[in-house]
Structures are given as C-alpha cells and as structure tokens.
Specification:
The complex is a heterodimer.
Chain A lengths: L14 E4 L2 E5 L4 E7 L4 H12 L9 E3 L11 E6 L2 E6 L3 H12 L3 E5 L4 E7 L3 H8 L14 E6 L2 E7 L9 E7 L3 H9 L7
Antiparallel strand pairs in A: 1-2, 2-8, 3-6, 3-7, 4-5, 5-6, 8-11, 9-10, 10-11
Helix pairs in contact in A: 1-2
Chain B lengths: L12 E10 L2 E7 L3 H7 L4 E4 L6 E3 L11 E4 L6 E5 L9 E5 L13 H4 L8 H5 L5 H14 L14 E13 L3 H12 L4 E4 L15 E2 L2 E2 H13 L4 E4 L2 E7 L3 E7 L14 E13 L3 E3 L12 E3 H11 L7 E5 L2 H12 L4 E6 L16 E3 L3 E5 L6 E4 L4 E3 L2 E5 L2 E3 L12 E3 L4 E3 L8 E3 L9 H19 L42 E3 L4 E2 H9 L5 H8 L12 H12 L3 H4 L13 H5 L11 E2 L3 H6 L3 E5 L2 E6 L8 H14 L1 E5 L4 E6 L3 H8 L12 E7 L5 E11 L2 E6 L4 H15 L6 E4 L4 E7 L3 H6 L18 E6 L3 E6 L8 E7 L3 H11 L5 E3 L2 H11 L37 H4 L4 E8 L11 E4 L11 E9 L4 E9 L8 E6 L4 E8 L14
Helix pairs in contact in B: 5-6, 5-9, 7-8, 10-12, 16-21
The chains are: A alpha+beta, B alpha+beta.
Chain lengths: 198, 995
C-alpha cells in the first residue's frame, strides 16, 4: 500500500485573536509519558539529566528543555502525575519516542501520548482575565509563576495548565493540554470568554 | 401630574439625560440615577400595590432592602420581574412596569382585599379554607396564589447570557462605604491583594448620602480620592455592582456581578451577569447598617419613607422627596437628616422626635419646627400621604414623611454559617455574635459603630489585624504611601447616636405594617402570640414575617420587638431568626452560567466523527461520547432499514465500526502480569506475548464490574480495554489497586484511550480488506494471526498500528488501532479501498444487534447487580489464584443454582416484538411480584433470523431452554409469549469467527 495516511491535528489549527489576547493550537508536538519503574524517581532524575540536560521537575512544575533561554519551540518536561512526567518536544512522535526511550527506557515505562492531547497556547496581557473566567485554580501571575503546572478541570474537561517561561515578548503565556476528543469544546469555552467573545 | 422635584447638587450627570417609561408614561432622568430616584424626581411616589391587600405603595428606601418598589423591567423575553427600583440603575430607553394589580395601578380591582382585611389576618387560609377539603388544591390555593403574587416571568427562554468566574485574593472587603474603603486602603497600601465588592454602582455608601467632612474633604470628594488611589493599585480590584450574596465553606464567597443590567440592550456586553466564586484568605464585612421603620397606623402610604432614604435622594441624586417633608425620629440620625435636607434646599415642615430632649436639637436650623416627645397616631391620603395626626391630636399637612426608627447592622452574611446575632442594648439592635464565619472580620456600622470616626477606627484596626495575620507581602516600596510609614488616621465626625427605643406609636389600632412586602401587621404578630406561637421561628412561619424576597431586612427587628412586647419578655430573651444565602435574590440563570442547552456538558468526539457527520450519521450519546448510531442511506425512511442493512452487509461482506471509545489502559512494569492476574477473575498468568484474552473483572463485593479484552504486547506490557461507559471507573479502580492495595508491585498505568483511533473490521471479507492496507510482510493468515492474536504492525507504508483479532460480532473480525491523528484518514481509506470488498460502515445499533444475536453481555447486562453466575460465566471464576471479589463472589445468593441466568428470548409469534424491561412471568400466572421470574435486558430485531430477539435474566434460565414464558410489560400494556433459548442463537458453533 503506497499511500501514506494524512495526519490531522485535534483542532485543525484553531486560533482566536482579540485585543490583548491570542489563542492558537500548537501543532507538531510529540508527548511521551515517562513513569518511573518501581517509583524510583532518583534513577529517572539521573536519566533525564543525562539525556536532556535538565533536572527532573518537582510536582506542579515544568522545566524547559532544548536550546535554553531562547526556547522558542516550547519543548519541556512537566510533572503530570505521581512518579510521572510528560516530555514534550517539537518533533515527530516516532523520533521523539525513540529519543525518550533511549534516555529513560531503562528506568521508566514510556507511552506515546502525542495524539492524546490537544495543545493550546494562550498569550497576551488579557490572559489573567481569561483564566479567571475558566478555571478555579489560582493562576494569578504572582502565585503561578512561569514553570508552574496545574492538572485540573475547565468546564468539566480535564486540562493541564502550564505557565510558560516568560520571555520579554511574552510575559503572559499559558499552555493548555486537553484530551483530544473534547478539545473542540475547550476551544469553544475559550471562544465564549471575553475578550474573545464580544 | 408630573412635577420636577430636582434640586441642586448630587452625583448625577446633568449633561447626560436619559429617557425611560413607567407604566407607559415617558419620563426623564440622568446618568447616575436609579429608577427610584428618577421616578421621585418626577414626583412619582405610587409605584406598586402590596402583596396581599393591594394597598397603594411608594418608594420606601434607597437601597437593597426596598420592600415596595418592585418593578418588571424590560419587555418580552428580556423582562425581569421583582427588580428593586432602588437598585436598578437608570439607562436610556428603560421600560418599567409596576406589579401586582388588576387594572391600572391607580385603580386596582384587587384592592377589595384591603376591605376584607379583617378576615385575611395571619394564618387566615389555615382557618378559612378548610371545607370542602378537595377545594384546597383545586380552587382555593390557585386562586389565592394568583391574587397574592409578585411579578411574572415572561415564560420565554431568557435570552441573556450568564457567566461564572473564580477569583483569589488575600482580602475580600464586602462593602464600599467608609469602613470598606478605609480597610481596602489600609490593606492595599500594605501590599495585600484586595478585592472590594459593593452591590451599589457607586462606591461610597453612606458617605454619598450624608453631608460632612473627612479631614478637610467633603464626604463625596473623599470618596473620589479614595477610589482613585485604590484604582491606581494593581493588586486591588474594585467590583462595584457586585453583591456578595453568600458565605460558603473554606473562605469561598458567592458574588453576583451585574455587567450589563445598567446598559441599553445594544450596548450590553456578551454577558449580563457573572457569578464569581471568590476565594479569600480573609474577608472583612463592612456592610453598614439598614434603617428601620416604626409601626403606626397607616404607616405604608406612598410618600412615607425612611429618613435616610430622603436624605440620600437629596444628597446623592439631587431629588426632593416632597415639598413639605416631615421627619419622625427616635435618634440623632433623624436630626442630621433634617439638617442636611434643609441645607440642600428641601423644605422641612417639622421634626418630630419621640425623645423629650437631645443635645442634637441645638444643631437644628433656627426656625425649624421641633416637636419633642411626639408620636404619630395616623396618616391621611390614599395614593400619596397628605397629612399626619399626632398623639396630641394636632394634624399636620405633609407630602413626605421621613421616618427613622434607628439602625440595624447589616449582619446577614455573618449568619451564613449559622452564626446567631446578639442583642446590643447600647444601640438597640442586633449585632453579629461571636460565631461568625471563619476568616471573617467586621468593620464599620455592622459592628454597631455609628459615627464616621468609629467606622474609620474599626476599619483600620481590622485591616491591621488582617495584615498581621497574613503578613505584608513584598510589594514595591512605591506601593506604600508615605514611605511605609503609617499615615495618620483620617478625622471625621464622632458624635453619639442617641437612640431611645421606639417600635410602635399610637394605641395599636389601625393598620400598622411591619413587613411591607408580605403585608404583615402589628395585629398579626399579636394574634400569633395569642394563638400560642412563642418561638420566633414559629412566629416567622405563621405570620410570614420576614419571608418575602427582602428576607425581612426592614421588618425583622420591629417584628421581634412587638413579639417581645406581647410576651412581656426582653428582645434579647425573645431572640432572633437568622439569615441564609442569598442576601438578595440571584437569578437562576446566573447559577447556571454557560451550562445550558448544548453547552450543558462537553462532548467527546471520535476520530471518525467528521467523516460520520458527512455521511449523515445519526449520533447517540454514550457517556460523554457521541457515537454514530446508524448511517441512513438514500431511500431509507426508518432506522430499522439502516440497521438491518448494516447488519446484513457486515455478516455477508465486511463492516467497519469506530470503537475508539472503548477504554484503553496501558499497563507496564515488572509485575504487570501479576497485577492483571489479581484484578481479573479468570486466569491471565499464562497469556502469551502476542495474544489477547477476554477478562472478567469483579468488584470487591463479588458482582461483575466490567469486562473487556487484554492484549499482551510485550513481556511487561499489556493493553487492557474496558467498556465505553466504565473506562474511567476501571482506570480509577486499577489506580486504587496499584496505589493502595499493592504498592509493592512494580506497575505503571496510563490511559491511552485518546491516543488511538480504533476500528472494528468485521465480516467474511475482513481479512481481504485489511490486506489492502497492511504493509508488506504482515501475515494475516489464520496460522500466522489466529483468533485472539495481537501485534504491532505497520500500515500504509510505515504508519505504526496495533492489530487485535477479536470479535464482538461473531464474524471473522479485527480491531485496528492507529495514532488518533490518522483516524480520520484511515476511515476514509478503509471505505474507499474496501468498496471492492463490499464494505459498509455500521453504527452502535447494528453492533448491538450482532452482539445480541451472539449473546454477548453489554452495559444492560453488566448493570452492577449481576454476578458471573447470573451471566452464565460462573466457570470463568478460577480457583487457582486470588483475585478481587473472589471471596464475596462465592456468596450463596450469587451462586445458587436456581438464581437468575442470562438467556436468549424469542417470541413465539415471530411477528411480535419483545419489549426491553418486560418482566418474565409464567404463562397463565397472575401479574403479581411473587410470580416474577426475571426481566428482559436487551432487545433487537435480527435480520439474519427474521425475528425479534432478546437477552434477559430468568430464574434457572439455563435449565429451561425451550420453555415458553411471558414477557409482560404492564406499563406499556404489552404481554407476549416468548421461548427461552440459549443466549447464543446465531452461528452457535462459532464457525464464522474462525474464518
């Protein structure tokens, strides 16, 4: 069979623009779940440090990986559950799974989660007023600094909220990971929120 | 009839006139007016009819406690009944109507009730409408309810949109008067995150209504600079038009913000109101105090209002509430009202003070008439007060009577955790008790502080206490005024309040209203006492005192005082009822927020959803999922035609069904095999890599929890599938097992339900179709990939996929899983390349028909009340290992031989259909529970067998094949004879399965 299947993103490139805020689907990210075998986080931490050059993020935290400060790609490792992190990279899922397996396969169970999540980027100075309408978690900028992670709910939908590391251009930048099957409803919830809804 | 009652001053914007209508008459007001102030400016006092007696009523207050001026605002679907005119901000084009009258407001037909009042006293309907008994429900109650009503709903769906939101803060200040503003300034300057919420659209509270100075600034100017300073602080959020209506657990406050109620429709934002949940580490209640009236004969005529209201209308709105205003008071605030009104140019006819002497009298302007030790015994004027009669017999002409019976702290929110107010003999009022909600502090008049200076002092003290408790966070120094030094306390008026108790005037004769909204009189309270109602709770419910939408904000204390008088007890000993949320009415729409219609809850869409929609599929909800139920084709007019076609095409060629919704749980770890073996009731220890097995999972109580297949992809790697409905439940169960029961096992779990698009490919041509898309080298022959095989393969030139040879339909069948991003492309490809194989897409209904033909249990059978034995799966319960539910599954009731068993059912007359839910009864038996032998759980029409079929549970069913019983559905009047069969009626040997 010669024809390759064409991949589609969960939200078909959804985006919203408004005064002070923009929101778009980030496509092209691969996600691998990495769960420490025997709950041995020390071994996983060592593997991650040697494989990705960063420390294992503490619960409720994310760390940037890749090309350091100017991380324009948004590659990161985030704590996702007990003894578990998600490693997210702008790579093909196959290549990403291979690199994660190489780095952590000996100390962790790994699954491909690239297709399980929609990734939405929310940025701009109106972010706080959007987040406070949607989510009961305290995401005030001072309380939820860059690198913070909250696994919670928005409108009954599971969501992982990550405050992205700040850059001069993007002081307000949140990344939302939400299950693929209901991502269209999270996109709708965002569109129904001022300033996107007028 | 409309006179211009505007005077100079006020906080209205005279450059911005606004037109509005009341009962069809056109009026105008200004930006900054309320509907009430604009009506009074046009000399309109008669604004409604009372609840029970339909007496003419006027605007009584200037705030949230208004009992009379309830309006219907807006028209058609937008109409909003029972809106307090005193809280409704005026906008251009506002349309308002009065309520509760038959015929025009000035000539209400129902006013006859007022003449009938002698028989309509407290509890009248308990005594009057007792005979004949059937009349109560059918006639009396509907008639009474119709007569005694408030505004009406439009009965059209509310077109307004409502939203919700969540805010977090260090300190929530409730109330934006002198105490609230002072506390917010103190805490804000210290760097705390502060939210200040006030129900009014202008912050300032009583400062807007009163003349006076703070330091060297007039009240209204001080408010302006305080608000400006707060606005300049990034960490302070001011929320005007926001009512804190409830105090909930753990520092959660319910707040209703009105975003668009004050705007013409074409200027409204997307949301009318927002229901905020504010989570505050501390709150400071600075809700002030509410003035109360006094009981005297005919004290409810239009033109009679609270003294503070007359003062506020003059000072804040530039409105004279009369051209000859008389003031009746028992405290110094009434004296101050007289002084302010006079200063603002309102003509004061007289000041009647029930006290014989007071120091404050010296401050009254020269020439103003003062009657000390005076009492009012009656009033005149039907639609507007025209005069009063004093106890001395003197008659005074007046067109506005401003009454102050003292002030009661607005302590409602302190009761929301069942806190009970305590009586304070100093200020003759209830003040908050010791048991107020945790985390709440009090400041200002709600504590009983009655001078401006006392309010300032209590606010600074309370804010300092909050700062001490929470610790001042690090804020830029620029935030702190005066370089971090504490600024001096503002200086303001600090005079005594000088109240002397006065609850009732005159000899008790005549109509003395206590609760204006529910038309409860002093006589009703006396009557309740006479009839033996001693507890305040009983008094409240018998007389309905305080039970209207205003929750007795005006009437509560006066009613209790009269109750105390009747019983000869003190008010403190009489006690008080308490208050519950909401503080003021909250629209149901605001509680619902966005959760209405299609947005009530999210939906989950399968990877093939877009394609299925293009095919015109009919969808069904399965949990949160939308699944294609069937795919109608041209010419099909009945769903059965579509379903029959899908079944027959699948069984004769090949069908494709999206089964991505089934739960998929990835299980890895050194002890994964052991783990799975412990959660399933049948053996899994010897499942080979590359093989799949059906598993039966029990709950701890021995009943069946779920079933599904588990595939062993690697030595330490399994994928478990669950039913769609139980996916989350099973995952939670496994996590419980892993984390709590067996933490020593090395097992890692994660859901991969969303990661894969999975399609069932079933039918004699299934292999043929699959062979068209799998990559070279993937051998699908029966020998290489037999029934129950599984493996990781590639399709379409390198796309990773998982293949399982499992079958729910009884056909040669596979389930093919690819990463979800390829799900849409894959269904399109299968349908395209499968044309040559006769491919048909089938939905959940055809899936159901085929599983019923095969006797496979599904949700209807796995209903949480059936055991493995009931399902005919008793032999799967292995004795060779321990597993969850093993012990309890052996309970006699679950295993008894004559218990219910899953069977097939076939109508004796093939033209009859079996009804799901029908009960199984012996032929000829009476329809009584004692004869009940089971029930029908699933039904279908089998196009293969040409008959209706069912699965059901029948007592000893497995031993009764061939027996005829009845499937009786007495609710739907359906009762037919059915034959008990094996559940497996189609291809019982399973020849198709092995292809």
């Amino acid at each position: 069979m010669a024809n390759r299947l064409v991949a589609s993103s969960p939200l078909n490139g959804f985006h919203l623009e408004a005064e002070g805020a923009q929101c778009r689907e980030d496509t092209g990210y691969a996600i691998a779940s990495v769960t420490a075998t025997k709950g041995d986080m020390k071994a996983l931490s060592a593997a991650i440090t040697s494989g990705f050059g960063v420390a294992l993020p503490a619960p409720g935290k994310a760390v940037t990986i890749g090309n350091g400060k100017g991380n324009s790609k948004g590659d990161m490792i985030l704590s996702s559950a007990r003894d578990q992190v998600f490693i997210c990279c702008h790579l093909s899922p196959e290549a990403h799974l291979a690199q994660v397996t190489k780095a952590c396969g000996h100390v962790a169970s790994i699954t491909d989660q690239s297709d399980a999540w929609a990734r939405i980027s929310l940025s701009g100075p109106a972010c706080p007023m959007i987040m406070e309408r949607l989510c009961s978690v305290d995401t005030r900028l001072a309380v939820f600094p860059p690198g913070s992670v909250a696994r919670t709910q928005i409108e009954h939908m599971g969501v992982i909220i990550i405050r992205q590391n700040a850059s001069a251009a993007m002081k307000h930048h949140f990344v939302l990971l939400t299950p693929r099957s209901s991502a269209h409803d999270l996109a709708h919830a965002l569109a129904e929120t001022p300033p996107f809804k007028t | 009839m409309s006179r211009d009652m505007r005077i100079k001053g006020g906080l209205i914007d005279r450059s911005s006139p606004l037109g509005f209508t009341f009962n069809g008459h056109h009026y105008h007001g200004y930006s900054g007016d309320t509907l009430a102030s604009a009506l009074l400016a046009n000399d309109v006092h008669l604004v409604g009819r009372s609840f029970k007696y339909h007496r003419p009523r006027g605007i009584m207050t200037s705030g949230p406690e208004e009992p009379n001026a309830l309006m219907t605002i807006g028209e058609g679907a937008d109409q909003d009944p029972n809106t307090r005119a005193t809280m409704a901000e005026l906008y251009d084009g506002l349309v308002s109507r009065s309520q509760n009258h038959v015929g025009p407001l000035g000539f209400d037909m129902m006013a006859i009730n007022d003449w009938l009042s002698p028989v309509l006293g407290a509890g009248f309907y308990y005594k009057t409408f007792m005979w004949p008994a059937v009349f109560w429900e059918k006639f009396y109650e509907p008639t009474i309810r119709k007569a005694a009503g408030l505004g009406a709903l439009s009965t059209i769906e509310d077109p307004s949109q409502y939203d919700k939101g969540y805010r977090h803060t260090d300190l929530l200040v409730i109330g934006g008067g002198i105490a609230g503003l002072t506390a917010a300034l103190t805490a804000g300057r210290a760097g705390l995150d502060v939210i200040l919420a006030d129900e009014d659209f202008q912050l300032g509270g009583q400062l807007l209504a009163t003349q006076g100075q703070i330091d060297d600034q007039p009240h209204q100017d001080w408010v302006k600079s305080a608000v400006a300073e707060l606005n300049a602080m990034d960490h302070v959020t001011l929320m005007p038009r926001s009512t804190v209506f409830g105090v909930y657990d753990h520092g959660v406050y319910g707040v209703l913000e009105r975003l668009s109620d004050h705007l013409p429709k074409d200027q409204s934002g997307p949301y009318r109101q927002v229901m905020w949940k504010i989570m505050a580490k501390q709150s400071l209640l600075a809700s002030g105090a509410l003035e109360r009236p006094v009981a005297f004969a005919d004290n409810d005529r239009p033109g009679i209002m609270l003294a503070g209201a007359a003062r506020e209308y003059a000072a804040r709105y530039g409105v004279a509430t009369g051209s000859r205003v008389t003031i009746m008071t028992n405290n110094d605030s009434g004296i101050d009202t007289a002084i302010d009104l006079n200063a603002l140019g309102v003509s004061v006819a007289a000041v009647i003070d029930s006290r014989t002497a007071a120091d404050s009298h010296a401050r009254l302007p020269k020439g103003m008439r003062l009657i000390t030790g005076g009492q009012i015994t009656g009033t005149r004027g039907r639609k507007r007060i025209s005069g009063i009669t004093l106890a001395s017999g003197e008659k005074l002409a007046t067109d506005c009577l401003a009454v102050s019976g003292g002030w009661s702290p607005t302590l409602h929110l302190t009761c929301h955790h069942r806190g009970r107010p305590q009586w304070d003999n100093q200020i003759i009022a209830f003040t908050p008790g010791a048991d107020i909600p945790p985390g709440m502090l009090l400041a200002g008049s709600v504590t009983g502080a009655m001078s401006t200076q006392a309010c300032i002092n209590s606010a600074i003290d309370a804010a300092d206490a909050v700062i001490k408790t929470l610790g001042a966070p690090s804020r830029p120094k620029a935030m702190r005024k005066a370089g971090g030094k504490t600024p001096p306390r503002p200086q303001a008026e600090d005079r005594p309040y000088g109240i002397a108790p006065l609850w009732q005037m005159g000899d008790g004769k005549g109509r003395q209203f206590i609760d204006y909204q529910n038309d409860v009189t002093a006589k009703d309270i006396k009557l309740a006492h006479q009839e033996g109602y001693r507890s305040v709770e009983h008094l409240k419910r018998y007389t309905t005192l305080g039970m209207a939408t205003d929750q007795g904000k005006l009437s509560n204390v006066v009613g209790l005082a009269l109750m105390a008088k009747a019983s000869g007890k003190s008010i403190a000993d009489t006690g008080t009822t308490i208050f519950r949320p909401p503080y003021t009415p909250v629209p149901i729409g605001a509680f619902a927020g966005r959760s209405r219609g299609a947005n009530f809850r999210p939906t989950r869409l399968t990877p093939s959803h877009g394609w299925a929609k293009e095919q015109g599929a009919v969808f069904v909800e399965a949990g949160a999922w939308l699944r294609a139920q069937w795919f109608p084709q041209a010419g099909e007019t009945h769903w059965r035609q579509s379903v029959d076609r899908e079944v027959m095409a699948t069984r004769s060629a090949v069908g494709v069904c999206d089964v991505s919704t089934l739960g998929k749980i990835d299980i890895q770890g050194r002890d994964a095999t052991d783990f799975i073996n412990r959660v399933y009731a049948n053996g899994f220890a010897k499942l080979a890599v590359g093989r799949t097995r059906y598993g039966l999972m029990l709950r701890e109580d021995g009943f069946v929890m779920d079933d599904g297949t588990t595939a062993r992809l690697g030595d330490q790697h399994y994928v478990m599938t669950t039913t769609t409905a139980n996916a989350v439940l099973v995952y939670r169960h496994l996590e419980f097992c892993r984390q709590c029961l067996w933490p020593d096992l090395d097992v890692q779990l994660i859901s991969t339900t969303e990661q894969y698009a999975q399609y069932a490919i079933a039918g004699p041509n299934a292999r043929q179709l699959l062979n068209r898309i799998v990559d070279n080298g993937v051998d699908l022959s029966d020998a290489a990939f037999p029934f129950m095989a599984c493996g990781e393969i590639t399709i379409c030139n390198g796309i990773p996929a998982r293949l399982f040879r499992i079958s729910f339909s009884g056909e040669l069948a596979y389930e093919l899983a690819v990463p979800s991003r390829y799900g849409d492309a894959l269904i399109r490809l299968l349908m395209e390349v499968g044309k040559a194989d006769g491919v048909t897409a089938y939905g959940t209904e055809a899936l159901g028909v085929m599983r019923i033909e095969k006797g496979h249990p599904a949700g209807n059978e796995l209903n949480g009340q059936t055991s493995a034995h009931h399902l005919g799966l008793g032999r799967m319960l292995t004795q060779k290992k321990d597993y969850i539910g093993r012990v309890m599954a052996t309970r006699p009731e679950l295993t008894r031989q004559d218990g219910i068993r899953l069977v097939g059912l076939k109508p004796v007359d093939p033209n009859q259909a079996i009804m799901a839910g029908a009960h199984i009864l012996p032929v000829g038996a009476q329809n009584v529970a004692a004869h009940d032998q089971g029930w029908v759980s699933s039904v279908a029409y089998s196009p293969m067998l040409g008959t209706s079929l069912a699965l059901g549970f029948v007592a000893s069913g497995d031993q009764r094949f061939g027996e005829v019983v009845r499937a009786a559905d007495l609710l739907r009047g359906h009762d037919i004879e059915v034959e008990i069969t094996s559940p497996h009626v189609f291809d019982p040997e399973g020849r198709r399965l092995h292809g």
